[in-house]
Amino acid sequence: MGIDIKHKHVKVGRRTAPKSEDPYLLLLVKLYRFLARRTDSNFNKVILRRLFMSKTNRPPVSISRLAYLTRNQGLSPKAKAALDPTAPSKTVVVVGTITDDNRLLEVPKLSVAALRFTATARERIVAAGGEALTLDQLALRAPTGSNTLLLRGPKNAREAVKHFGMGPHKNKKPYVRSKGRKFEKARGRRKSRGFKV
């Protein structure tokens, strides 16, 4: 006969509520908690979990990335021709910020739902005939996440991540006190910095 394992101090390995006290975020959490409980859709559970995340785990997505990812990537010309042009386009959902990209000259018509938009990103999406929705508007339109495309930005694109995991042969970026000629640049040029040629 086995023994009962004491689970008294076992911690949940993820957030179960947002750390932020933003009242608008807390209202969204309340809404998506309800939807996650009352619908069978996995979509609402994912949205709820992402609402709990820290800001570094909710990286921004640019409109150029949205344009690239919604352009029927990877389809053959025959498959693209077979797509029904009258079918409603999918709503792109991002639990994070949508940012502008001035390298993108022409913004396609997009339907985007996100936590927040930068002012210029919102302007350009609306000017192109698209729509910029909030997540509560999305809940009214697609309570089970039907006809949506859930995207997120790159978590490891931050400058800080380049320094993580330092060690020999790891090719990581060192934390440098100063970038002058006597400091990191001086290796191989003076005795006190490794060696001198």
Automatic annotation (TrEMBL):
- Does the keyword section mention Ribosomal protein? yes
Q: Where is each Large ribosomal subunit protein uL15/eL18 domain found?
A: 2-197
Basic residues: bias regions: 169-180, 187-197
Name recorded for this polypeptide: Large ribosomal subunit protein uL15/eL18 domain-containing protein
An annotated GO cellular component: cytosolic large ribosomal subunit
Outline the segment boundaries, as ranges, of region: Disordered. Answer: 166-197
> According to its UniProt record, which protein family does this protein belong to?
Belongs to the eukaryotic ribosomal protein eL18 family.
What keywords appear on the UniProt entry? Ribonucleoprotein, Ribosomal protein
Q: Which SUPFAM superfamilies match?
A: Ribosomal proteins L15p and L18e
Question: RNA-binding among the record's keywords?
Answer: no
Q: Which PANTHER family match?
A: 60S RIBOSOMAL PROTEIN L18 (PTHR10934), LARGE RIBOSOMAL SUBUNIT PROTEIN EL18 (PTHR10934:SF2)
Any one GO MF annotation of this record: RNA binding
GO terms in the biological process aspect are:
translation
Question: Which InterPro entries does the UniProt record give?
Answer: Ribosomal_eL18, Ribosomal_eL18/eL18-A/B/_CS, Ribosomal_uL15/eL18, Ribosomal_uL15/eL18_sf
